[in-house]
Amino acid sequence: MNRILTPSEHLMWLSYKNSPENVTLSATIKGSFTIDLLTEALAWLQLRHSRLKVKIVTLHQNQPQFSLENVPPIPLRIIERQGEEHWCREMVEELRHPLSWSEEPLLRVLLLHSPDVSNLIITFHHCIGDGLSGAYLIRDILQFIGEPDNPRELFTRLTSC
Asked: Which CATH number fits domain 20-52+72-146: 3.30.559.10, 3.40.50.10160, 3.40.50.2000, 3.50.50.60?
């Protein structure tokens, strides 16, 4: 999906440059899972959802465009979970911290990890999704790590660019 941003996406991108408006969601995970499994889930998610494969580059005359060129894996940061309210503090920081939209995918993931309970926090640029999109992403991640032996499907969809 190499294409120029639509007028509404362009407006969100311009606004984001002055005042980041991240979309951030959290899920609590009870039980244990491996970091490798979460890393696999994120790689699968990036294959499954086309907007997670792009970054934004600026062309001549500062025209922003989605680009598939040299987009790295979804960034995953892992820190030790520090109690029940830790996720609230981290979500505030995630909301404040801008995404590296020209260098990385437009989504990042933070895991507050402990052996029994973990908090998964996803943060993404509003021009690739909204709260409902985020809920679907979290659902996909949780299904992947919760059902590690299930076959993984990559949907082929007709999409407009």
From this structure: 3.30.559.10
